[in-house]
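User: Sequence in, structure out. Go.
Assistant: Echoing your sequence, followed by the structure tokens.
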Amino acid sequence: MRRQWTRLLLALTAGLLTATLVWQTLTRERAPLPTPTPEAEAPVLVAARDLGARTLLGPEDVTVITLPVRARHPQALTRPEEAIGRVVRYPLTAGEQILAGKLADDRRSASLADIIPPGKRAVAIQVSEVIGVGGLLQPGDKVDILALFDKQTYGKDAAFLLLQNVEVLAVAQTTLTETEEPASTTPLNRLSGPTPTPAAKAPAPPPARPTPKPQPQAKTVTVAVTPEEAQRLALAEKNASLRLALRPVGDNAVVELPEATLTTLRAPVEPPLAQITAVRFSPTNARAGDTLKVEITVKNTSPQVLKSQGPNPEFTYVQGQTYHSQNFPSEPGKIRVGVSFEGRPAAPFPYRWGLGGDLPPGATTTVVGFIKLTYDLKPTNFWAGLILEPATVLQDNVGTTLITVVPANVAVIAVDVANVRSGPDLASSVISQLRYGTEVPILGQEKDWYRVKLPDGREGYVAAGWIIAPQRGG
């Protein structure tokens, strides 16, 4: 009898305990959730599109977005008027915060040497109104340089494209740094905004892009070329007549053309088989181990069906491989797209992809390919091309994009000078400074600060916004 009462008492106790736990759980679930505190936000000026170094910023190049305060870089600008009319010192990608240290005040104080692209030389050539595109050539334009040889010098009368996609640095003594300012009666203060007037309610409009005047009397044009191209240009100018052919804005393609001779003048000009109309590389800042995605859009501009071959779109190469090493040798007469880069690739356009099938006349397709990045790479230009196998390049240097690959545990300083602090906050003391482009090992991360190892062996913290923060590849 006593055992039965004991069992009954234990059962009642367990039931009461269970009921209590259920009641507490239901009470917690019915309790209203605390209202989250809205995170403070701030306006930030970002690039509206990819911007190359030395770009003169206009209203269409920048836009204002709202970000959490913790995500805003300390040096980020906040208003368009702080950037419009200034010059990009280092390339910016679309959506990147625009930092004060990445802009130059203006181009009027810059000399010709300041605007020569890295690895290039400024070379002047003699021109006339005819040679210089009717005197309408302007600094910043891109041209092709044609060389016309006579029989006495070259063995036959011939013309060919000597250099393609060459940047004009100056026309006569006018560079892009000395363009004429447009007339305006409204002064603009970049740092404090438009000058207020009693009647004005809205801010003054931003200044228009300055436009150089045509110079039909110019006797020289200065172009940016590599040292090897400078040799060829000097030799051609001495022994041939030169002509400059102006390129449309945004056209960076390089074409392969046979020389023109007197016997080919009456031959029909054949349209190109196909044309690359768009190229995109992403990410542009990556870490070793990421995958570079390549998107190339091709249009069949011929009246015939274009035949292609493998590898099919979506194929992934590993950095250092080639189409040949992966058993996709050239099939003569087939069309493929390819990717090449600065330096010494193992083969011309080592990364090649097929179109995914036959391409009918007038049709367009986008080829997507991938490259697995296995080791670090200094900032290097990558570009796309169109190949008629086995070796005819129909288009070259299309969509040239600067790609940086850093080791997975390395940060690259992205501002002129970055303060290194003793702790992960602005209140911590500055223990050192690192200049633009310096690479430092990453030891860890605390919120918006990276703990890094300095060249002298010490450790410190750098703000996340002051380093290259590569996007993760797909």
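User: And one key feature?
Assistant: The CA atoms of residues 16 and 121 lie 89 Å apart.
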